[in-house]
Amino acid sequence: MNQYPPIAEHGMVGDLQTAALVSSRGTIDWWCTPRFDSPSLFASLLDSDRGGHCRLAVERPDGSGGTVRQLYLSDTAVLVTRFMTADGVGEVADFMPPIDSTEPQDTHRLVRVARVVRGSLPFTFTCRPRFDYGRAPHTLTRDDDHTALFHGPGTDLRLQSTPGFRLRTDGDDITARFTLSAGQAAAVVLTSDASGAPAPPHATLEGIADDFETCRAFWLSWLRSCTYRGRWQDIVNRSAITLKLLTYAPTGAPVAAATMGLPEQIGGERNWDYRYTWVRDAALSVRTLIDLGFHDEARAFRQWLRERIEAGGTVSGDPLQIMYRVDGDPHLTEEILGHLEGYRGSRPVRAGNAAADQLQLDIYGEASDALIVGNDVGAIRGWNTLSGVLDWLADHWNQPDEGIWETRGGRQDFTYSRLMTWVAFDRGIHAANEFSRPADVSHWSSARDAVFRQIVERGWHEKRHAFVQHYDTDVLDASLLLMPKVGFLSPSDPDWLSTLDAMDEELVSDSLVYRYDPAASPDGLRGSEGTFNLCSFLYVEALARSGRLHQARHAFDKMLTYANHVGLFAEEIGPSGEQLGNFPQAFTHLSLVTAAMALDEELRRAETGVQADNHRHWHPATHGLTAPVESGQGGGTGG
């Protein structure tokens, strides 16, 4: 029997400091605590035997759970797994009470509520935690039939069940079996604690019902700030909630995904740890949240970003490194967890990320734009932070780097990296003029113009009639789908349309888009990968802005069919339509939102017969990557 559910067969719950994945089998097979990037308590997703799990599900005498369906309560992060059998209908609701606090918490609760809505059904429960990625032993102590305490290294896990849900000892683990009839409910609370705090009061259904309503109300209240009112409201709302769930509230730092080690190719070696904050991903995620009306998240991230620049202390000595831990720690030593077999045998399983010390110059474009959004650079501290970065970049932009995709095949003069350094200078120059701030604008302008000329002269491949991945290749790269979005050229520019045609022919497969061709552009890794969801949604946006509206709409509709049953996306789509890579991925969900917004705008324009003025519409001072002024702040963005 295959012990690994498909990656897509999961929903995610979280409390804004950590997150867990719950499979459609009712199994928590991924939970790291007390932070996203902490060692795991449950990691059976990476090793079904050694990783640890917690299962609560209907189990009939024949071993089946009947037909299973999973859904979110509308516009919340409350996940419900329903079991429909000939004997009745039961469900398990999973949620984590949100901790929307600027203070890191050592205690986190995951609540599991079982109930029956029709008939009478047997439930089975198992809790087999395996601390520190399954490397550390634990001990188990019991006080009574409704409590259990697992002692692990630095963290404890406490179970508390309600009456009718008797916990039984099974070696160093816990099991339970109980039957519920229509209208009955039982629950268990899993509390991870790294502080040694006293045990909370016994769990009661009344108290859990209050927690449930508080959690539900939190998400409904948060989502009221959303300003999107387009055709794809439900999927955009789900993506917004997912981006929020992937943001570490104490610092405002978004993580790239909730997981580590999930493969880009089953059995392959492209298995990375994504539980960290990439400057690029985070800046674009925050921009998306601003576009949706969520300004508090943007302010928190910009403060975190300024602090990273001001603190220095990067591994390389540059102003920024490409990623950090959620608390800003720049040290992400990569290790191989050789005792774990990996998802369906996909080895190695890596914790940490050695790419942290790579040079990726594009991050300065995304970072500069993030600092400019909302007029932060109007403040002296904000301006000094940005101008210092741009002064450094003006002297260092013209060098090879590892590029946006973190290739491990050596540095190149990547066109996308140059494009985003152009963005950094362009935004900085506009901001200096807008706010009359002191700056070496002539130096920045010279650098900006030199970058522009270099991209046009060396990033353009005459035989391909397209902009290419780097200066010494004819390989295409889907990251360049952002060229018109950032205002480098118009979406109706003939050179851009020619580039888009080339991508259509080489990188696009039935609306799905590959990042690049690893066979044509070796990246230092064995194996292949699926199509990249970020790029597929960027392709939709590029088509829409370039006037290919019917093609864009069709591609977007097809992309939505690859969402899982609760509207979540992993990083990639495999050859048979399966989701691959870490899950859920922030990059994918932010690009889904931007594609939906672009389509809405272009469809409205087409319906009203308004012709787009591409040169005005795409001027970086009005669009590009910048955003409208946040409420309560005067003046223009200066971007």
Q: Can you tell me the CATH topology of the largest domain?
A: Glycosyltransferase
Which CATH-level-2 architecture of the largest domain?
Alpha/alpha barrel
Gross geometry: globular
- The proportion of residues in beta strands is 15-25%
The main β sheet shows up as: 15 strands, antiparallel
Cα distance, first to last residue? 56 Å
Q: What portion of residues is helical?
A: 25-40%
Query: pLDDT below 50 for ≥5 consecutive residues: which ranges?
Result: 614-639
Mean pLDDT: 91
Structural class: alpha+beta
C-alpha Rg, in Å?
25 Å
Count of distinct structural domains:
2
- Helical stretch count? 14
CATH class of the largest domain: Mainly Alpha
Find the count of extended strands (DSSP E, 2+ residues).
28
Account of the 3D structure:
With 639 residues, the chain is of the alpha+beta class. The chain has two domains: 188 residues, Beta-galactosidase, Chain A, domain 5; 385 residues, Alpha/alpha barrel (Glycosyltransferase), CATH 1.50.10. The protein is built from 14 helices and 28 strands. The protein has a 15-stranded antiparallel sheet that branches. Strands 26-27-28 form a three-stranded antiparallel sheet. Strands 16-17 form a two-stranded antiparallel ribbon. Helix 7 packs across helix 9 and helix 12 packs antiparallel against helix 13. The C terminus is likely disordered.
Notable characteristics:
639 residues, alpha+beta, Beta-galactosidase, Chain A, domain 5, Glycosyltransferase, 2 domains, 15-stranded antiparallel β-sheet, 3-stranded antiparallel β-sheet, 14 helices, globular, disordered C terminus
